[in-house]
Amino acid sequence: MSEVVLENISKRYEGGSVAVEQVSLTVHDGEFLVLVGPSGCGKSTTLRMIAGLEDITAGRISIGGVCVNDLPPKDRDIAMVFQNYALYPHMTVFENMAFGLKLRRVPKAEIAARVQDAAEILGLQDYMKRLPKQLSGGQRQRVAVGRAIVRKPKVFLFDEPLSNLDAKMRVEMRSEITHLHRRLGATMIYVTHDQIEAMTMSDRIVVMDKGKVQQLAPPLEVYRNPANLFVAGFIGTPPMNMLRSGDRIMGFRPETMTLCDATSPEAVVQGTVDVIEPMGAETYVQVITPSNERIVARVAPDAAVHAGQTVAFQVQMERVCWFDAQTGENCLARR
Question: Which of 52, 92, 242, 269 could form a disulfide with 313 if both were Cys (CB 3.0 to 4.6 A apart)?
Fold first, then answer.
């Protein structure tokens, strides 16, 4: 079993600053769990506490049913992939991938077999004699992942592994890591600030802010039914639209809006077109309402709208979320 359980873990530094506060969650055996949130939300600190790179102030962490609070990183049976690759520049690809096994005095024949298997999985067979400086950014990241694979750990931990790659390579590596998870069936915990990575790669998402878990749910549940205003504003590009309605806040996504005649009884939103953003397959229209609130609608690329135009939209009311105006909590969301 490779289940990871966090029970009310906290991290406080000298001076009283709190990085993580009473986080509890269970990562199921074989699950791909993503921690996502803005900078400083506590996601990387949480990952580092699981890895043993940060001491916990309070709480309990168990991996495979064993409490690891007092175990050093090398004894936790985890493998970590960092943002900066951390490859040895004087070692070949083979040597980098084999180095950890050599330190553990694994027999040479087994090392060669494990490295060869990982190289085949990651398409690195033709690069085994190259140095890191002779590789592209994506290839270096594959080597870092390969170094983790050969360990055959209980849990893989990824800390912003794609941040140094360009946009095209990020898309390719997202797919490769997803395929890797399916092939290995391993437990993976992945930290990112990129909501696209979170939405496309995860089985479940943990949205964090100010050291606390704001929501833990499958990606589409988080998108369609955010637990509170923070999640609604953080997940989704553009974020969810918000309109005040008495003691509640009405939240709805840009794709739930459809242009209609202003006199239609189904018209929910009216306003003046402020900015038009053509995206190719779709266009986003920013509208200023009479109450001076800004909303964004997704329309067809050939929609007849122009800046300064008065427009009206109907909204798919079955997809509207309602938030308490005082607490910011979703009135119906499941935590």
Answer: 269
Mean pLDDT confidence for 196-220: 96
pLDDT at site 1: 62
Sign of CA dihedral 76, 79, 85, 86: positive
The set of residues, in sequence order, having a beta carbon less than 8 Å from that of 105 and lying 6+ positions away, is none
Which two three-digit tokens encode residue 12? 């406080």
**pLDDT at residue 231 greater than cutoff 90:** yes
86: left (phi over 0), alpha (psi -120 to 50) or beta: left
pLDDT in tens, 325-335: 999 999 975 44
CB 205 within 8 A of CB 36: yes
End-to-end CA distance of the chain: 26
Neighbour-count burial for 234-250, b at 16+ CB within 10 Å, e otherwise: bbbebbbbbbeeeeebb
CB 299 within 8 A of CB 305: yes
Query: Three-state SS for 74?
Result: helix
CB atoms within 10 A of CB 289: 14
Span of 149-158, 162-171, 220-229, 269-278 with lowest mean pLDDT: 162-171
Enumerate the H helices of 66-218 as residue ranges.
93-103, 108-122, 137-149, 167-184, 195-201
Mean pLDDT confidence for 228-248:
92
Determine the pLDDT at residue 173. Answer: 85
Distance CA 256, CA 322 (A): 15
Cis check for the bond before 238: say yes or no (omega within 30 of 0).
yes
Q: Report whether 331 contacts 322 (CB < 8 A).
A: yes
